[in-house]
Specification:
By secondary structure, the chain is mainly alpha-helical. It contains 3 helices and no strands. Its main location: mitochondrion.
């Protein structure tokens, strides 16, 4: 025989939303900065391409 719980939480139904996956820390953080990951990738690609082109092209001659 299993022992029944000593007490039943009367607020359990009202607190259930806190454990829903939508309110997890990961979901909150990912929706806090929408597009941040894409921006990091785009900026990294820009820096890599810019460094590559600056090494490939000869320096410009300055005329005084």
């Amino acid at each position: 025989m299993s022992n029944p719980p000593l007490f039943r939480d009367p607020w359990a139904k009202r607190e259930a939303w806190r454990k829903h996956p939508v309110f997890s820390n990961r979901a909150m953080f990912s929706s806090m900065f929408p597009g941040f990951g894409i921006a990091v990738v785009a900026f990294t690609a820009y820096v890599v391409v810019d460094n590559f082109y600056s090494k490939v092209q000869p320096p410009a001659q300055q005329k005084h």
